[in-house]
Amino acid sequence: MARITTVIGVTVIATESLSKRFPRVTALDRLSVDIGPGVTGLVGANGAGKSTLIKILLGLSPATEGRARVLGLDVAAEGAAIRERVGYMPEHDCLPPDVSATEFVVHMARMSGLPPAAARERTADTLRHVGLYEERYRPIGGYSTGMKQRVKLAQALVHDPQLVFLDEPTNGLDPVGRDEMLGLIRRIHTDFGISVLVTSHLLGELERTCDHVVVIDGGKLLRSSSTTDFTQTTTTLAIEVTDSDTHPDGTRAVREALHARGAETQAEAGGLPGAGHILLLTATGEETYDLVRDVVADLGLGLVRMEQRRHHISEVFTSSDEQRKEAVGHGG
Amino acid sequence: MAVEQPAYTATTPAGDQTRIHDIGYRGYDGPRLGRAYARRSLYSQSLRGAYGLGRSVKSKVLPMLLFAVMCVPAAIMVAVAVATKAHELPVSYTRYAIIMQAVISLYVASQAPQAVSRDLRFKTVPLYFSRPIETADYVRAKFAALASALFVLTGAPLLVMYAGALLSKMGFAHQTKEFAQGLVAVALLSLLFAGIGLVIAAFTPRRGFGIAAVIAVLTISYGAVSTLQAIADTQGNSGAVPWIGLFSPVTLIDGVQSAFLGGSSAFPGGTGPSGGEGAVYVLFVLGLTAACYGVLIRRYRKVGL
């Protein structure tokens, strides 16, 4: 508990016009961002500069210009001290198939500087916390993707770091595995008291898990704010209705009726099956709900669903794409 | 729940019940021993791994077998020498490793890829470098581990011979001096072979290629150099023999020990390099070892993360 209180209110990661230029690409472009304790999502498309940022923050790759501090330590001068206090879970496979999870994680704990007895004890604890039980004595080669991801997470947590970098931890997982992994990431902060920087190109999953989201694109900061800011600005209602004999296309009838009363609707985006049957409209207050109820009742249709849709972080990307198109138009 | 509970307790041993309760997360406030400790741990893990210890039964077979193959001829020699009350061992300490060079090469070929290719192939390397240890620590630990493993492999039969020589009451001072010279020679050999093996293995993540490449470099170069030396010798060009010897690891060690460590050379004509030429040999051995170390450091800077 003592450690948690010392971290609260402190900036865990701070970058100051951090740039990384390779001969042909600029991976990071004057990125300045402050990240506090908690679970922070680092969002960006592939090639946005997420992995480059993690490498710099681990003190493994020098920045071309600018400065960065992790846990109050300078990345350029105190890389080894940072790496002792930080855990890292890479995106790619990194596990040898011919050793057991226990042997592997014990070895990695010792590489982090834990004495042999402590390494074994922490390994048993950590593997239990990530949800590996009897299987941990079997060679990793026979594990499922979900189990491998847990071993990768365990090796990042085994030395009880103050901060972990998780690079695309939900990659390759099925929906159930994804939910379990996200729940685990949430627990890393709430139960273990470890701050998390988690990258993903899937935005929806981060808004459920993270306290704060940083969006980068082309090495530039697009947005950095708490997830509540992202999702609370407006409320969108999703409506689905039945069809009837008098109204063979109920959805269309409702849309027209709503338009007649001055309410704007959109069809659900994203070409999913059944998407055409869902109407989205912006709720301006209580009266919007009444309006929908009245319209549907007047038409004699059944209301299958009426639910609040939170604003999706993905809209940040659509708006940035528009900006980029403008920038290109200006000759950028 | 009511149905599941008894089934669960019935299949779980009593000792495991303590683990069912989630005791919550416990932090770690103990010591963190840092880089030097991590390097030592990596060294000991790699050294044990070079003999298959802490690995599967299958991976113990080859290194243990080669270790036995290295030691058995020494034991037989000792037995014969003791039985016949000989005054001198049939093979000198410095010659032994040269005779057994094929076994040593095979060992390097099998264990160098094991030491480094696995980490590269399964991309485990980034996990090391996201920890306090750095490129140089990793390379030094792996280099030292393979060199130590080779020193054990090549030194053990010498120890058997030395023990046998003392048992059969051969001259103590003479035997000790020759044994020490033999140890210095195999130490140089271990460093050189470890360096060459690791460099080749670090550039061939596929294990099969690594094995083939190490065997090719160590054995074929020895064969080619020996053949060239023989040709040069029969054509009356014996001055070129020592210079040709610089181009294979086995003849390099042979040259060093015959020039400075009282060894008899296996070169055609039985004459090794002279003092001046021997100095070049020593420089070559040390230079090659250092070059291998440098190449490895460069290699791991690149693969970093």
TrEMBL record, chain A:
<keyword id="KW-0813">Transport</keyword>
<protein>
    <submittedName>
        <fullName>ABC transporter ATP-binding protein</fullName>
    </submittedName>
</protein>
<dbReference type="GO" id="GO:0016887">
    <property type="term" value="F:ATP hydrolysis activity"/>
</dbReference>
<dbReference type="Pfam" id="PF00005">
    <property type="entry name" value="ABC_tran"/>
</dbReference>
<dbReference type="GO" id="GO:0005524">
    <property type="term" value="F:ATP binding"/>
</dbReference>
<dbReference type="InterPro" id="IPR003439">
    <property type="entry name" value="ABC_transporter-like_ATP-bd"/>
</dbReference>
<dbReference type="InterPro" id="IPR003593">
    <property type="entry name" value="AAA+_ATPase"/>
</dbReference>
<keyword id="KW-0067">ATP-binding</keyword>
<feature type="domain" description="ABC transporter">
    <location>
        <begin position="13"/>
        <end position="243"/>
    </location>
</feature>
<dbReference type="InterPro" id="IPR027417">
    <property type="entry name" value="P-loop_NTPase"/>
</dbReference>
<keyword id="KW-0547">Nucleotide-binding</keyword>
<comment type="similarity">
    <text>Belongs to the ABC transporter superfamily.</text>
</comment>
UniProtKB/TrEMBL annotation, chain B:
<feature type="transmembrane region" description="Helical">
    <location>
        <begin position="209"/>
        <end position="231"/>
    </location>
</feature>
<feature type="transmembrane region" description="Helical">
    <location>
        <begin position="279"/>
        <end position="297"/>
    </location>
</feature>
<feature type="transmembrane region" description="Helical">
    <location>
        <begin position="96"/>
        <end position="116"/>
    </location>
</feature>
<dbReference type="GO" id="GO:0140359">
    <property type="term" value="F:ABC-type transporter activity"/>
</dbReference>
<keyword id="KW-1133">Transmembrane helix</keyword>
<protein>
    <submittedName>
        <fullName>Membrane protein</fullName>
    </submittedName>
</protein>
<dbReference type="GO" id="GO:0005886">
    <property type="term" value="C:plasma membrane"/>
</dbReference>
<keyword id="KW-0472">Membrane</keyword>
<dbReference type="Pfam" id="PF12679">
    <property type="entry name" value="ABC2_membrane_2"/>
</dbReference>
<feature type="transmembrane region" description="Helical">
    <location>
        <begin position="61"/>
        <end position="84"/>
    </location>
</feature>
<feature type="transmembrane region" description="Helical">
    <location>
        <begin position="179"/>
        <end position="203"/>
    </location>
</feature>
<feature type="transmembrane region" description="Helical">
    <location>
        <begin position="143"/>
        <end position="167"/>
    </location>
</feature>
<keyword id="KW-0812">Transmembrane</keyword>
